[in-house]
Specification:
Layout (H helix, E strand, L loop, with lengths): L1 H5 L9 H30 L3 H23 L2 H23 L8 H9 L3 H5 L5 H15 L2 H7 L10 H85 L5 H15 L4 E8 L4 E9 L2 E2 L5 E2 L4 H9 L3 E3 L9 E3 L2 E3 L3 E9 L2 E10 L5 H79 L1
Antiparallel strand pairs: 1-2, 1-9, 2-3, 2-4, 5-8, 6-7, 8-9
Length: about 450
């Protein structure tokens, strides 16, 4: 029953702090009813009808305040409930204290005790209402002399042991009830604060997790973007390289175009292209490039000799980041120094090594750069193989043309010989006929 009573006037849309104050007001209502009723019975025992009338009025006002709370006028109801205890205590103080007499300590205890009521019924957000109520209570407390003049008792109120005992018990009961109400508010406030802290910590944890997820997503996007940029760089570079391969039909000139193109694109420092010649069983340096200038070097390497020959035999690329001293030196405007890495890639086509490309660089090649060089090596291997076939085709075509010309020359010579033989035969026949005619003429004369 009390749980439902304590919820009177509380609406679902009220703020949590306001619900706590209205709940406290309902508890104060119950407390006031008990205290006023106890004071009414005390007044009956003391035969003070004037005090009873004021207490009954206070009880009626208390119920009216509770009705106002139920009707939704919670501010007016709480102000009334905060004033009634001080008002009743001041009435009793005025009734007890005779003109010129001593003030009642018990009444003053109640008056001072009930000064805390505004702090129970109003939250810190309601400072204005709290100040108004405190001001009214202070004014009521200081007006007990006026109440003393208004109240005329039939006889002086005795100050017996029973009165003090009842007042003491009432004060204890009131203090316990008031502390209970305040403790309930503080407990709910503390619970709310702890819940708020818990929610804040939970929200912070959720934000931290969300931030971690966001950072993870951003990292994944960065990685995906970087991978996409690498793929774009590789595809564009390969397309550009293939386009460069079609620029010149002269294979020697094309080697001198492709090697610097590779050096610049992968940001290397120098490179050499070795092509394998099957008839001589050697790898010949057909093009070399270093620091924006061609290096005219004549060099032949047998399979198995050095890194180039080893790469030819192993048919796999060689990648070195610990370059031996004096293996190769890169010359620049700052002098000569060893490269940080050496990369040799075989140029393979149809399971046959057509050549080797060797690159030296001050920076270590990334994985995607080496993947690009693998594709370039594959394209160059195919190109060299096709160039060999084309060269052999040209040689065979030239030989066929030479044989055709030779056969034409021999045919012409045979035709001329035939014509000469025919002319000789005709001359022989003509002479033979002339000879026969002469013989016939000589026979007729005889």
């Amino acid at each position: 029953m009390f749980d439902n009573l304590f919820q009177v006037g509380i609406k679902p849309d009220h703020e949590p702090w306001l619900k706590d104050r209205i709940n406290a007001a309902n508890k104060v209502f119950v407390l006031l009813v008990v205290i006023v009723v106890l004071n009414i019975f005390t007044s009956f025992s003391l035969f003070s009808t004037i005090i009873i009338s004021y207490l009954v009025i206070g009880l009626i006002v208390t119920f009216m305040a509770e009705w106002a709370l139920y009707a939704g006028f919670h501010v007016a109801a709480r102000i009334t409930m905060a004033i009634i205890p001080v008002f009743i205590s001041s009435i009793i103080q005025g009734a007890v204290q005779q003109v010129g007499g001593q003030a009642s300590a018990q009444s003053w205890a109640f008056i001072l005790l009930f000064q805390a009521m505004p702090f129970v019924l109003f939250a810190s957000q309601e400072k204005t209402y709290r100040r108004i109520t405190i001001g009214i209570n202070v004014a009521l407390a200081l007006s007990y002399e006026l109440f003393n003049q208004w109240i005329e008792t039939e006889k002086p109120l005795p100050t017996s042991f029973i009165e003090g005992y009842i007042t003491f018990i009432t004060a204890i009961f009131m203090l316990i009830g008031l502390l209970f109400s305040m403790d309930s508010i503080f407990e709910k406030t503390q619970s709310g604060v702890l819940e708020l802290i818990k929610n804040i910590e939970k929200e912070k944890e959720e934000q931290r997790k969300a931030q971690e997820e966001l950072n993870k997503t951003l990292d994944e996007l960065k990685v995906a973007k970087l991978e996409d940029e690498k793929r774009t760089w590789m595809s564009n570079g390969l397309a550009d390289f293939l386009a460069t391969m079609r620029k010149d039909t002269n294979i020697k000139n094309l080697y001198d175009i492709l090697v610097p193109h590779i050096v610049k694109f992968v940001n290397a420092n120098q490179a050499g292209l070795f092509v394998y010649y099957d008839d001589e069983k050697v790898l010949k340096l057909v093009s070399a490039y270093a620091y924006s200038r061609k290096k005219y070097i004549e060099k032949s390497i047998k399979p198995g000799d050095g890194l180039v020959g080893q790469c030819y035999l192993e048919r796999d690329k060689i990648f070195m980041t610990q370059v031996p001293d004096n293996y190769i030196e890169i010359t620049s405007g700052l002098g000569e120094s060893n490269p940080r890495c050496i990369l040799l890639v075989p140029l393979i086509n149809n399971d046959k090594v057509e050549g080797i490309i060797e690159l030296a660089s001050f920076h270590i090649f990334d994985k995607y750069e080496m993947e690009y060089l693998d594709k370039v090596a594959e394209a160059m291997g195919s190109f060299i193989s096709n160039a060999r076939i084309s060269e052999q085709t040209q040689i065979l075509l030239k030989q066929a043309q030479e044989m055709t010309e030779q056969m034409r020359s021999q045919e012409e010579e045979m035709r001329q010989n035939m014509e000469e033989m025919q002319a000789t035969q005709e001359e022989f026949l003509r002479k033979e006929q002339n000879y026969i005619q002469k013989i016939n003429q000589l026979g007729g004369s005889v």
